[in-house]
Amino acid sequence: MTVRVSLMQVDCSDSEHPDDRVARVIDDTAEACANADMVVLPELWHAGAFAIDVARQHQQPMDGPLVSGMRTVAADTNTWVYVGSFAETLAGNTYNTAVLVGPDGDIRAAYRKVHLFGFSGGETTLMTAGEDLVVVDTPLGPTGLATCYDLRFPEMFRQLVDRGAHSFLVPSGWPTRRIEHWRILARARAIENQAWMLACNQVGSHAGVVLGGHSMIVDPWGAVVAEGDDSECVVSAGIDPDYVTETRRIFPVLADRKL
């Protein structure tokens, strides 16, 4: 079985008002859903991953217009939509929350980012860290959810595999100046866990930071199946979820773990 996946590499430049971007990207996602079984968006794309003051001004609850709009898109197009993440208000706290919506429009999972980026007045000045790891059934098989900076913590991904993950969805806001880290880490997490990696980055410039793009679909051997450049685009590929089981069978490295 082939699953058609598309990564929405959104331009999050601060020249566009967040409300206008949300409306535009919801429309763009609906178009992408016409040719995909699953669509994935980046981290904090409504505000820009480094625009923490903007995120503070445009935080919203789970039933706010961003998630509600994407739920409508998913239901209208019968498509899985990983909304990427947004600044979620919940019980007096703000979280960097990524939401997975099923083709019926129901919320199937929410992941609140565990490893917050704390450099240069980053997320830790606004966000509360999540505590729970999430693995959810999708057309890709059991799927582990992570966000951006989480990529630097391999133990998290191994725990997701221990909970059954065969694939990872990683919405991100990774800057150009560290883009080689991004490309290496996304492949490394796929290789060491023998899992599909769908890593969706953003582009554009905001808060004085240039975002690097290069959204990637990586197979369980670490081969890059599809990759974006540094401009707004949709990165698409057809992938076989069963390839994970086959890879782990013919090269059973996970069975040799000692620690």
TrEMBL record:
Residues 3-241 form the CN hydrolase domain. Transmembrane segments: none annotated. InterPro entries: C-N_Hydrolase, C-N_Hydrolase_sf, UPF0012_CS. PANTHER family: DEAMINATED GLUTATHIONE AMIDASE (PTHR23088:SF27), NITRILASE-RELATED (PTHR23088). This is Unannotated protein.
